[in-house]
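Q: What does the predicted 3D structure of ATP synthase subunit delta look like?
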Amino acid sequence: MGSATTQALAKTTSALTVASGVDLAVARELFAAARAVDGSSHLSGALADSAASTEARRKVVADVFARAVTPVTLSLLTTAVEQRWSSPADLVDAIEELAIRAAAKAEPNADVEGDLFGFSRTVAQNPELELALGSRLGEASAKGSLVESLLAGRANAAATLIAASVVQHPRERRVRQLLSRAMNIVSDQRGRTVATVYAAAPLSAAQTDRLAGALAKRYGTGVSLNTVIDPTVVGGLRVQVADDVIDASVSARLADLRQRLAG
């Protein structure tokens, strides 16, 4: 990610933070805008062209989207194109990120990260589903409809919208990568860090609270815990936060002991 994109992302995220009237309709419109911009090299090039004047880029947004989206969405899109981006692809990523953040903001009390993680595990355990969602064949909208049907009654509206939208717009990314990115964006929007916990058995509420508190103290931020039941852990826990792995499992200690004995 170039420095221009880093600065631009910070400004667009700030604009969303202070925006009022952000609901799931706004998030849905932003997802549609990301697909539209990515689907036209002419449009994405014009909107991300730093050589063009800011006013010219604003006009393109107004001409293309003003009649199709709400004023809140139009304002956020306008803020996005006012920035300098390292590439048109970065602008598309940013609009999609705005959509994910908007969905999280629209339902602040929903466990969006948890439901996205649950769906990611479902995909991981069903190769045929992963293949169907990741295939280049078939209509993108049909993949979105499939996700909506699978999550109906099982996930909150924000998580359903996010999952159904990102699978329609993969851009050479695997389904689980799309969902993982979305989870991280939602957690960041809420000021939290995502931690994946691998345990041999489900954690009790007390264990979950203690672990979340310990991780929050270690990383200086709130923590969203996602638990994976993994019999190979044997006992204890293995926790992954981004690239940081904390392995306190019995299996890890046994492996370390075998390595020391081997010399």
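A (community wiki): The structure tokens above were generated from the sequence. Residues 148 and 164 are 6 Å apart (CA to CA). The chain has a mean pLDDT of 91.
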